[in-house]
Amino acid sequence: MACAQTGSGKTAAFLIPLISKMLNDKDRATGKARRLTNAATPGCLILSPTRELAIQIHKEAMKFTYRSNLIALCCYGGSSINEQINLLSNGCDVLIGTPGRLIDLLERGRISIEFVKYL
């Protein structure tokens, strides 16, 4: 549990080591996110209690994965599920999401947590 001022680096404190490990992970070193038939199979799943926090974490993850072979995606309720499904169809390595939308996508078979190594 971390409690600190806004802008102090809490998100970076868990994203930087995570992304570093994933970049060195032999299974993900191919440059292509794993996919099973129609399901994206992220190696990392970040759960967020709110859509606002999920978006904020995703923005930071995008900064840290820029120009790497890792794909970071965000899924949350209150926006088009079809758009999120289209983005997931290309696969992803880091998936940030809210519990409700993640459960919906799991039930639809659009994501699989079979290969999640980091939670």
Give a structural overview:
With 119 residues, this protein is an alpha/beta fold. It contains 4 helices and 5 strands; from the N terminus they run H-E-E-E-H-E-H-E-H. The protein has helices at residues 10-24, 51-65, 81-88, 99-107; strands spanning 35-36, 39-40, 44-47, 72-75, 94-97. Strands 3-5-4 form a 3-stranded parallel β-sheet, sandwiched between helices. A two-stranded antiparallel sheet has the order 1-2. Strand 1 (35-36) and strand 2 form a beta hairpin. It is globular.
Cross-sheet strand order for the largest sheet: 3-5-4
Structural class: alpha/beta
Order of helices and strands: HEEEHEHEH
Q: In terms of per-residue confidence, which ranges show pLDDT below 50 for 5 or more consecutive residues? A: none
Largest sheet descriptor: 3 strands, parallel
Mean model confidence by pLDDT:
89
Gross morphology is globular
- CA radius of gyration: 14 Å
Quote the distance from N terminus to C terminus.
Answer: 14 Å
Report the helical percentage. Answer: 25-40%
β-sheet strand percentage:
5-15%
Instruction: Give the number of DSSP strands.
Output: 5
The number of distinct helices, counting runs of at least 4 residues, comes to: 4
Give the topology, please.
Blueprint: H1 10-24, E1 35-36, E2 39-40, E3 44-47, H2 51-65, E4 72-75, H3 81-88, E5 94-97, H4 99-107
Parallel strand pairs: 3-5, 4-5
Antiparallel strand pairs: 1-2
